[in-house]
Amino acid sequence: MRRVYATPDQLAEYTGRPTPADADRLLIRASDDVDDALLAAIYDTDTAGMPTAPAVVRALAAATCAQVEYVIAQGGDDTGAAGQWDAVSIGPVSMSGRRGGPVGAGVDIGPRARRALARAGLLPGVIW
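^ that's the sequence the OP posted. Answer follows.
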């Protein structure tokens, strides 16, 4: 079972905008990104793998909403491809102008999402 750390209502509150029509899909994918960024994080969970500490619950919800906001700002491309290259051609394959790379455990996570996780001490390498 997939863990989803934020609701469409939380997303609307976080962004201050109406909930996108595909909010559920965006939240699922953003939660996957957050999970990937937290590959080595340690925090208490229930039997479904959901965090139990209120501060961690809030941090994961904020990071998930921030990740959705990041994906939308990139034009809605949650594959990560559009945010990595200025130009891409398929035949005979040509890529140009690489713009940065994935952060964390190989996931392209937005700066606000990363900061929410860092403030909560959840990023790999942070010990509390």
